[in-house]
Amino acid sequence: MPKLVGKEVGEVGFGLMGLTWRETPPSQKQSLEAMRTAVKLGATNWNGGEFYGTPQRNSLHLLNEYFTKYPEDAEKIVLSIKGGLVPGQMKVDGSKAGIQRSIDECLRLLDGKKSLDLFETGRVDLEVPIEDTISYIAEYVKAGKLGGISLSEVSAKTIRRAHAVHPISAVELEFSMYATELLENDVASTCAELGIPIIAYSPMGRGFLVSTTCTTHSTCADMD
């Protein structure tokens, strides 16, 4: 079984984006049922985002509701959350103030019902050295408020720079028959060398590799 931050997870992850970040999200009842089914099927690596929705309704709100109803599932799940954006904007903020605001907000919304196992910025802030951003996140790991640090959509060079500051627990990248870049740009080989697991999102090619009927049920297999 694969492991993240020392915990075993299923080979297929569960992406939460579609439950809160779409024009017409599913109902709370539908979402909680889907999440519960994911646990029963062994999909225990969950990936959500502070910006998967609005500041008023995103993955963290849904997760709070889920673990309020099913507190016994909290220890079964390895939770990875993307953050580090300006609230309400698709603008990356890897500054110390931006990172602290984002992680503090995630922890506030989880309200102790679930630990924050992994945190990553949605993208790299090109205006802040990655070493600085990682050092700010690492402060939370050292304080016991965060399990580990992950990266999203990064180059091999960035992985090495980040890993030199603090061990990186996972790297999230798109990977499917339509997206094989990580095999050609040294990212996969770098992660293998450093012992960093890769979390492949959109393995079904964002729905292109499944039928219309299956696409509506592909959230559990699609870390989009």
Topology, pairings included?
Blueprint: E1 3-4, E2 7-8, E3 14-15, H1 17-20, H2 28-40, E4 45-49, H3 59-69, E5 78-83, H4 96-110, E6 118-121, H5 130-142, E7 148-152, H6 156-165, E8 168-174, H7 187-194, E9 198-201, H8 212-215
Parallel strand pairs: 3-4, 4-5, 5-6, 6-7, 7-8, 8-9
Antiparallel strand pairs: 1-2
Helix pairs in contact: 4-5, 5-6, 6-7
Descriptive tags:
disordered C terminus, 224 residues, 7-stranded parallel sheet, alpha/beta, two-stranded antiparallel sheet, oxidoreductase, 8 helices, TIM Barrel
What does this structure look like?
With 224 residues, this protein is an alpha/beta fold. The protein has one domain (3-215): TIM Barrel (Alpha-Beta Barrel), CATH 3.20.20.100. Helix content is 35%, strand content 17%. The chain has 8 helices and 9 strands. It has helices at 17-20, 28-40, 59-69, 96-110, 130-142, 156-165, 187-194, 212-215, and strands at 3-4, 7-8, 14-15, 45-49, 78-83, 118-121, 148-152, 168-174, 198-201. The chain has a 7-stranded parallel sheet. It has a two-stranded antiparallel ribbon with strand order 1-2. Strand 1 (3-4) and strand 2 (7-8) form a beta hairpin. Helix 4 (96-110) runs parallel beside helix 5 (130-142), helix 5 crosses helix 6 (156-165) and helix 6 runs parallel beside helix 7. It is globular, with a radius of gyration of 16 Å.
